[in-house]
């Protein structure tokens, strides 16, 4: 019997329900929702292991080992089922090794953390392995987003190394490479979660989250249409650089795949598909996503490239970032004119003028004040989660990003 094969009829109905499109908020149809008390526990094979006896480092090491397993599965699948020359199989391996496993792995590990916390760290090895596999699917998703994003933003470095597309023997081949990485997600899901009651909703979930993230990227990119000449300040649509536009961008671009998806995957594996919990998880995820993106915008300007692993370009790229939104809110007319004359320009002296203006407006101090207020607000949201769900699934994720410096 494969993992999660013994499900009640209600569970199969719930897991197989179509994701509603209204507002893109993953709302299940009313008739498909059922409380956890009305469903049976998910059946697992093998004895339970006490993972509380393992250190975080041991758990992370075991998680990383699963990547090697998944890579072998992918390469064997290509070798055995497709007419691909050896050198191209080796190139696919290089794509994966270069782009997938080098981040902080917070998204993938959040699936594992959620499973362990919700089950008091008592799970079978098969449950743990399934959480690792789903976690790596999210890391593959992250990798393909980043390769594409780096091309669109003309980024220089990522995770402390040259962006993939900048390598001499890669260049624009990277456009096809990130599509290959995305396809691997669905190869993995089909192989490891091949029961229809699991495979269909998981594929729907990953497709929906991918689509919503792509819409977020669209909001981001179209905040400065490509036909705008950044050297002509009068053509830059600064009137759209407001908190409403910014909130829409970060909600779709960051919150769903970085926070909601890993938490939701952990809830699925733990059989905690309660509609109230799902809604509160969504609300908390959106709040975390906004905070996380504002952190990114701050670090893009003020972070040390050698520490954060990339060179910030939000000013040069004329991004609708939190810093420029706040600057436009706080600046007087003279300062607004300085900002408009220099924002989005490549010249280092113009970038410096923008940063000098940020300093005049005390944006560093404003960010630090915002950060503490945001953390407090998210903790209050977590406090309101019903007691039958261990709130540590949210606090663990929040603690990983709170006051981060990279």
TrEMBL record:
<dbReference type="InterPro" id="IPR033749">
    <property type="entry name" value="Polyprenyl_synt_CS"/>
</dbReference>
<dbReference type="InterPro" id="IPR008949">
    <property type="entry name" value="Isoprenoid_synthase_dom_sf"/>
</dbReference>
<dbReference type="GO" id="GO:0004337">
    <property type="term" value="F:(2E,6E)-farnesyl diphosphate synthase activity"/>
</dbReference>
<dbReference type="Pfam" id="PF00348">
    <property type="entry name" value="polyprenyl_synt"/>
</dbReference>
<keyword id="KW-0479">Metal-binding</keyword>
<protein>
    <recommendedName>
        <fullName>Farnesyl diphosphate synthase</fullName>
    </recommendedName>
</protein>
<dbReference type="InterPro" id="IPR000092">
    <property type="entry name" value="Polyprenyl_synt"/>
</dbReference>
<keyword id="KW-0460">Magnesium</keyword>
<comment type="similarity">
    <text>Belongs to the FPP/GGPP synthase family.</text>
</comment>
<dbReference type="GO" id="GO:0046872">
    <property type="term" value="F:metal ion binding"/>
</dbReference>
<dbReference type="GO" id="GO:0045337">
    <property type="term" value="P:farnesyl diphosphate biosynthetic process"/>
</dbReference>
<dbReference type="InterPro" id="IPR039702">
    <property type="entry name" value="FPS1-like"/>
</dbReference>
<dbReference type="GO" id="GO:0005737">
    <property type="term" value="C:cytoplasm"/>
</dbReference>
<keyword id="KW-0808">Transferase</keyword>
<dbReference type="GO" id="GO:0004161">
    <property type="term" value="F:dimethylallyltranstransferase activity"/>
</dbReference>
């Amino acid at each position: 019997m494969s993992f999660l094969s013994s499900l009640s009829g209600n569970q199969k109905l719930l897991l197989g329900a179509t994701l509603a499109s209204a507002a893109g908020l993953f709302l299940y149809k009313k008739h498909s929702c059922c409380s956890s008390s009305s469903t049976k526990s998910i059946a697992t094979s093998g004895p339970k292991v006490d993972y509380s006896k393992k250190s975080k480092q041991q758990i992370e090491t075991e998680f990383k080992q699963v990547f090697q397993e998944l890579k072998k599965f992918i390469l064997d699948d290509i070798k055995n089922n497709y007419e691909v020359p050896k050198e191209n199989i080796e190139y696919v391996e290089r794509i994966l090794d270069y782009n997938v496993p080098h981040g902080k792995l917070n998204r993938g590990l959040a699936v594992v953390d959620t499973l362990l916390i919700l089950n008091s760290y008592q799970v079978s090895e098969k449950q743990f392995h399934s959480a690792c596999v789903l976690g790596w699917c999210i890391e593959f998703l992250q990798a393909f987003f980043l390769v594409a994003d780096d091309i669109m933003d003309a980024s220089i470095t990522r995770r402390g190394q040259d962006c993939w597309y900048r390598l001499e023997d890669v260049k624009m081949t990277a456009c096809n490479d990130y599509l290959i990485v995305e396809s691997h997600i669905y190869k993995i899901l089909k192989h490891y979660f091949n029961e229809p009651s699991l495979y269909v909703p998981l594929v729907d979930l990953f497709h929906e989250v991918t689509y919503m993230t792509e819409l977020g990227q669209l909001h981001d990119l179209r905040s400065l249409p490509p036909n705008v000449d950044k050297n002509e300040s009068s053509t830059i649509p600064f009137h759209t650089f407001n908190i409403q536009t910014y909130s829409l961008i970060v909600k779709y671009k960051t919150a769903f795949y970085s926070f909601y998806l890993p938490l939701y995957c952990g809830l699925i594996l733990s059989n905690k598909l309660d509609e109230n919990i799902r809604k509160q998880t969504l609300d908390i995820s959106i709040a975390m996503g906004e905070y996380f993106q504002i952190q990114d915008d701050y670090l893009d300007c003020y972070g040390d490239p050698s520490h954060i692993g990339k060179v910030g370009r939000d000013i040069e790229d004329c991004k609708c970032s939190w810093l420029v939104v706040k600057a436009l809110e706080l600046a007087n007319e003279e300062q607004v004119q300085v900002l408009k004359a220099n924002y989005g320009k490549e010249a280092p002296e113009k970038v410096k003028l923008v940063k000098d203006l940020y300093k005049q407006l005390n944006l560093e101090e404003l960010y630090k004040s915002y950060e503490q207020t945001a953390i407090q607000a998210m903790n209050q949201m977590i406090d309101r989660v019903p007691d039958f769900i261990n709130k540590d699934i949210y606090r663990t994720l929040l603690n990983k990003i709170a006051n981060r410096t990279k």
